[in-house]
Design goal:
The protein is α/β, with parallel strands linked by helices. The chain folds into 2 domains: 6-128 and 343-359, Rossmann fold (3-Layer(aba) Sandwich), CATH 3.40.50; 133-338, Dihydrodipicolinate Reductase, domain 2, CATH 3.30.360. Helix content is 31%, strand content 24%. The protein contains 9 helices and 15 strands. The protein has helices spanning 15-26, 76-88, 111-114, 130-146, 164-184, 225-237, 272-280, 299-302, 340-359; strands at 6-10, 34-38, 46-49, 52-58, 67-72, 92-95, 124-126, 148-156, 211-212, 244-248, 250-251, 258-270, 285-287, 308-315, 327-336. A 7-stranded mixed β-sheet has the order 3-4-2-1-5-6-7, sandwiched between helices. A 6-stranded mixed β-sheet has the order 10-8-12-15-14-13. Helix 1 packs across helix 9 (340-359). The structure holds NADP nicotinamide-adenine-dinucleotide phosphate (NAP). The site of NADP nicotinamide-adenine-dinucleotide phosphate has 30 residues, from helix 1, helix 2, helix 5 and helix 9.
Length: 360
Amino acid sequence: MLREGLIAVVGATGAVGREALAILAERGVPASRVRALASERSHGLRVRYGETQVGVATLGERSFEGVGTAIFAADAETARRFVPAALRAGAFVVDNSSAFRADPGVPLVVPEINGPLVTPDVRLVANPNCSTTILLLALEPLRRAFGIEAIDVATYQAVSGAGLAGIDALIRETRDALAVLEREGSEIGWTLPGAGGAGGVFAEPCAFNVFSHDSAVDGATGVNGEERKMIDETRRIWNDPAIRVTPTCVRIPALRAHTQAVTATLGAPASEGGVLDALAGGRGLEIVDDRGANAFPTPRKASRRDEVLVGRVRPDPGEPPGPGGTHRRWCLLVSGDQLRKGAALNALQIAGLAGVHAMA
Ligand SMILES: NC(=O)c1ccc[n+]([C@@H]2O[C@H](COP(=O)([O-])OP(=O)(O)OC[C@H]3O[C@@H](n4cnc5c(N)ncnc54)[C@H](OP(=O)(O)O)[C@@H]3O)[C@@H](O)[C@H]2O)c1
């Protein structure tokens, strides 16, 4: 239930904005309640809204008149510039960019974890980094049941994490690569022309390739921007400055949904039954864990799903079992749609919390 008034989606032509519109349409919100906003490049465009379309207007200082809820799905600079206008107009704002995530005055919220931070007086909430949301949603039941001291995580991130341009790059490069293979035949040994991203979005080719995440790498620490967000935002959302988070973030040629190989070091030893029971009770999760069929979470299974998929649950084989066959280190495979729960869905759930306050 969103607050009364119009719902503005800023960045309505982008990957996250389009997903927000799709969810609103699925939830039965009439198109007349939606104001789609983007840059002047998109002025006059129409974007899909369920079975119909809505026109896109150019974002400006006066775009928020009559708006009760504003979902920002543009870049950080645009958010810094226009969120104040939305707040002045009286809207409740959720921002998907990194602009406010480190601001101690702005809650950073995953509703299933720290939703109560959205109190009636809160007007602006930051939506966390998508990899962090997916990771923490999967681990939250284990944290509640056993505590978590450390997380080792390797990500397999979809190209749409870099927006619509990432999707376009993968489709274009895949077509080009298949054309090369077709032309050259198998004599070339199924190798493709070397380095260099064709589309300019990524510095490496994204089709038929895997590469270290495209965010900037800190020259001193070697940690890249995505990894830094996972470390800092985990500490903030769990309010646990001591937790050790060791991420390695990698981009893979999936269109959407981020996958993560996770090893969590629990605060207390747990049995396999205890871990599975805890995960089964986790909000927003679905367990996909069939050892016999070798069927586990994948980005294709997670795409367009609200739930984050969790599976391949097993104790760290390198850790000797403790009393009663219990373990402190548990390995999981997680896959979640980063455009949905990692962005648009989480933002709309936050807006829903504010809507409940407004109704009270
Ligand atoms: N993609 C993800 O998985 C993901 C997940 C979590 C958070 N996020 C964050 O969500 C935000 C949107 O990401 P995205 O992936 O959807 O990017 P995107 O596909 O590149 O879309 C960007 C959107 O921002 C709009 N925009 C850019 N400059 C603007 C301006 N000056 N005024 C108004 N609108 C402007 C664009 O409009 P035009 O089409 O008119 O240029 C477009 O609608 C980013 O902050 C990103 O970090 C993304």
